[in-house]
Amino acid sequence: MDEAIRGGSEPIVVEVTAGETYWWCRCGRSKEQPFCDGSHEVTSLEPLEWVAPKTRKVMFCTCKQTKTPPLCDGTHNTL
Fold first, then answer.
1. Which letter does DSSP use for residue 3 in this model?
2. What is the CA angle 60-64-54, rounded to 5?
3. Which residues pair with 17 in a beta bridge?
4. How many CA atoms, within 13 angstroms, populate the side-chain half-sphere of residue 64?
5. Nearest to residue 26, comparing CAs of 13, 40, 12, 14?
6. Is 46 helix (H, G, I), strand (E, B) or coil?
7. Is 48 in contact with 6 (CB distance < 8 Å)?
8. Where are the domains of the chain?
9. pTM
């Protein structure tokens, strides 16, 4: 099965809640971007567990190339 990471072209802004766990999709296959929906099961990739340090809006990466996963670092602008 194709394990190539498929990514979006822009981050998704989400209001997160302090102390809550979010499972960021690493494979790019999830239809619930930026979060995991289990689509990685056919790959060797696993979602990334991320706990929100505080309640606020954050930009989750969808290009899957960020150097600060799961948050966007602007890498999508260079792809």
1. -
2. 25
3. none
4. 21
5. 40
6. coil
7. no
8. 12-78
9. 0.87
